[in-house]
């Protein structure tokens, strides 16, 4: 059933939130003097995952979550002391739970070995505690809404419930035929109730007539739903808002629960004598075994977990990204129209009338405010990426055997949503790199008088219209002599070349550079920082290194605030206006003829401060008709791209530097070599955005490429 | 417009008729989004010669195809009197540069004739049928799919 998929998706979205609560909580528990409420929150998160998983029959997930929950409960009741060892285990369990949710989502098989290993460890804790909690065998409730109802088997009565009815509200509903006729579905109602919290659903089919008397038009099923404590009657009523008049409904407090964590007390009976529904008295089935302490926990629906967060987070809505994009497009239009209008006003000679000017200014101001607000909608805190780095660090630390802690600063810094997703991979790589290559081993650290535990700091901040992310370690710093040696050995630089320390650091970003002597489990497979650099460049950013020998290394990434806008230099090529992204630009100059050197036919080099840079005529590469002026009147823009390739672009003029909104060319046309996208200028015309990287790569022949390589290395 | 919709029974359809080098062409009205006056385009490097460039259509980047060049009449020198027919094809929006739009006509699909065998005129492969009008004019029906191969742009 299609609806079932929808519920599944909802469950996994909820899981993501719960897992985040879990990971956050565990980290808080590592702080001395943590709040007891944190443990409760962690417990509730695991419990809610378990509850949801049970509804979807995800047995492995349920079994694992149950053990995990049991141990957390022991921690909560102070039966297990929180030691670093225990915390380590809890973290690994949290990671494992995340994996299990992931495999359940993608329908893969979970890593049984890992799960079993952790379960054994958890069982060890449970046993050593001397409680017989393990006796509890968790039986998942499978709410198979999609299965055809069988009249022989009273489904509801057979359904085992893991949790007894709690002191909440008892909802009884018996849909009338109008409900079905108007296209409503009891299943959807039940699902909405489940969203309010964990509820026990019992179906009553007692009034189903024997087959000979049975009328297909006359509905005869009724349901009884035990809602957990703390759910408002109004909330329940709102679920039934549209079906009130065609469904027999009663909501009343459930009989007081008499739950004792210990022995075989009789289960509370849920009687339904004066039920307006055709249903007769129904007993809630007794749970299969004694409830363990877990089930006596306060209502632990997803709602509960969400509420515990509500203290810090403002209410949010989920909006489809394309709606925001559409809004963004319209604002782009607005800005363009405004520019056109102001041009018209100028031509009409009205630009000196103060009210016209004031009106235009107000519109311009509003348009830019709206643009910023929409960008703010797309912005998300870097927290989403940073949190994932805790796990990466833990795994890297385990793999290398180096004790490391991660400090994150400025998680609330916001960047564009698409950027968040694309930052995960480069940051993962950088964290691993810092642990593996940056930090010294424990012995060396001790000798240098540093604390045994290494520290990696991940920080983010807004800095003059860009986002700066830094990954710094307190390790040994870059061993420049060694880096240089390796680069020479691999033919990446000419032996004996005169390199500044900064230039040596840059060698780390060259493709094929891997400085670790031996290949470790983590890195050193030849996929190195060049990948990081390419990814960051792809986001319109830059990576820089700062390193002090013996004190540590800092990698800084500078990113634009959004992918929707790029800071560009407006250039003139023949009769065309194009945009060159400012990130690539190193300097602009009007060369004297003594700086230009011809090489063979048609090629030219620029000699700038002793460096030889190949000149690329952009008019020629784009096939734009050359103006009469000739090359002497032109301007050169020195650009540097990935892997330190440099070139000087010859353009006819530079007018302006401004932010432009990126428009896709591929949507209605296709890829154009040397062009990354297009934008719309103030006069409504389209300008192409140049991709310097691609132009350099497509430099016509090998000689050009060699020249560029030579020039960039020399 | 309302009237022409009523023509839209089985076998009938409306076409937008336009002129190119004094010949009459048409395309199915369902494909046409709007008709605009010519505005200067921004050139696309490495594009086929019949791609005039791109224009800004309310925030989207739209390619303009010079039909005259595409059909072998030679590149057009567009003036403000030229028109751009904005059409939607296979999820892409494209502008077709034509001399002028003459009419919106109901045609009976039974009256569409196959193209007679003529010499290897480039126009031949883009024309799917001919319609003789009552006033003796001949409409050449254009197949957008042939005109705009899916690979265009990507190959460039």
TrEMBL record, chain A:
Residues 363-563 form the Histidine kinase domain. Residues 1-104 form the HPt domain. InterPro entries: Bact_Chemotaxis_CheA, CheA-like_dim, CheA-like_homodim_sf, CheW-like_dom_sf, CheW-lke_dom, HATPase_C_sf, HATPase_dom, His_kinase_dom. It catalyses: ATP + protein L-histidine = ADP + protein N-phospho-L-histidine. Residues 565-701 form the CheW-like domain. Its EC number is 2.7.13.3. GO terms for cellular component: cytoplasm. Residues 294-312 have a biased composition (Low complexity). Keywords: ATP-binding, Chemotaxis, Kinase, Nucleotide-binding, Phosphoprotein, Transferase, Two-component regulatory system. GO terms for biological process: chemotaxis. Residues 257-312 are annotated as: Disordered. The modification Phosphohistidine is found at residue 47. GO terms for molecular function: ATP binding; phosphorelay sensor kinase activity. Pfam families: CheW, H-kinase_dim, HATPase_c, Hpt. Involved in the transmission of sensory signals from the chemoreceptors to the flagellar motors. CheA is autophosphorylated; it can transfer its phosphate group to either CheB or CheY. PANTHER family: CHEMOTAXIS PROTEIN CHEA, SENSOR HISTIDINE KINASE CHEA. This is Chemotaxis protein CheA.
Automatic annotation (TrEMBL), chain B:
GO terms for biological process: chemotaxis; signal transduction. Residues 12-153 form the CheW-like domain. InterPro entries: CheW, CheW-like_dom_sf, CheW-lke_dom. It comes from the Bacteria. One of its GO terms (cellular component) is cytosol. Transmembrane segments: none annotated. This is Chemotaxis protein CheW. It comes from Paracoccus hibiscisoli. The lineage of its organism: Bacteria, Pseudomonadati, Pseudomonadota, Alphaproteobacteria, Rhodobacterales.
